Amino acid sequence: MTVHVLVEYPARDGEEHRRQSYEWLALETKSERGDYFKENGVRWTELARLPYLDLVRCTVIDPMHNLLLGIVKTQWYSQWIKENALRRATTTQGRELDVVHQFLETFESPLWAGKLPLRVGEPAGGSLSADEYKFAAMTALPIIVRDCASHRKRFRNDKFQIPIVWDLFEDEAVSEFQSAQSRYETAMKVYDAALEKWNASQAGGEPSHENAKKRKINEKPTPPKPPSIRMQSDEASNFLRLATALKIILSSSIDEAQLDRAEALLEEYLLLYGADAMKPNHHWSRHITNQIRDFGPVYSFWTFVSERLNKLLKNFNSNSWKGGQMEISMMRSFGRDALLHEMV
Which region ranges are annotated with the description Disordered (predicted)? Predict the structure, then answer.
């Protein structure tokens, strides 16, 4: 099955965007401009005066925020942590996050590759940065969560089998789902009987109850919520599709064949969770490969450089100067640091 996220929505046109920008500028009141923006998603920009600039094609979607702080964070937190695919241990039983933490405690990587908090996935682990999500998606988690069926075929001896999260806990998740499904079917029978009784009472034209308690009893019954399985069988392999796509897209050099493969992997990744799990970032991610075709590898336009520069500048002691003096203090601090690095 093939899905094409890009063709599901009409593409924006640069000239149309420019025309609508001028239409927004011609409006006189704030409310008119607000309504126009809500309808068309366009407001005025001085860049619209440049006849050679395609306002749509030259609007860059930042891979750092879109892919790492967007899609990877959604996968980790929304799909796995919030949906209980990866659970914290209880006082008597180890669970999925325990396996992740055990791997991280013994995981060795060079300093430039990054690292993850040992208690990742728990409040004690804190929020992850873009660098940490990059390391998680492209290095640590593919090893920890992937399906090791190929390992089982290759190595018959148990000592060679890697304790992978989905291999250890998927059967338990399926058993829990089957039990929940059985309870749901029982609850649906109770609901159907209650609904039939309620419909009969409404058709009979019974007088309204004055007592609040009786009114509550006579309310239309609420159907039970159907259960969902917390660990899908193809989820580990699906995560590898995302990890491989990220490995390609975030590389420092890339060719057309690799871009085509990354696009196919992203499309396949989006199939598993369905339309209900889709977020704007999932759609925007499909534009990044075209941006790479226009501007080159992501290193030429992602915001890691500016974000790190912001962090660097914030660490400088500005002596609370204003009116142009702060910039002088920051440059002096930068110069001192540069000289210090040369000496060391």
Answer: 201-231
> Which letter does DSSP use for residue 140 in this model?
I
Answer positive or negative: Cα dihedral of 318, 323, 324, 328.
negative
- DSSP string covering 226-281: PP--SS-TTHHHHHHHHHHHHHHHTSSS--HHHHHHHHHHHHHHHHTT-GGG--HH
Confidence (pTM): 0.77
| Gap between the Cα atoms of 328 and 330, Å rounded | 5
Task: For the beta carbon of residue 19, count every other beta carbon within 10 angstroms.
Answer: 13
Asked whether residue 80 falls in the same domain as residue 105, the answer is yes
Kindly report the backbone phi and psi dihedral angles of residue 310, in degrees, each rounded to the nearest multiple of 5, phi listed first. Answer: -60, -45
Q: How far is CA 251 from CA 10, 66, 114, 173, 197, in A?
A: 30, 16, 16, 36, 63
Which amino acid, 256?
A: E
Task: Give the range of the structural domain holding residue 333, as residue numbers without chain letter.
Answer: 304-343
Tens digit of each residue's pLDDT (9 = 90 or more) over 250-281: 999 999 999 999 999 998 998 888 888 889 99
- The residue type at 146: R
Residue 214's pLDDT band (boundaries 50, 70, 90)? Answer: low
User: Is 12 contained in some domain?
Assistant: yes
- Cα separation, 282 vs 232, in Å, equals 20
Are the beta carbons of 330 and 310 closer than 8 angstroms? no
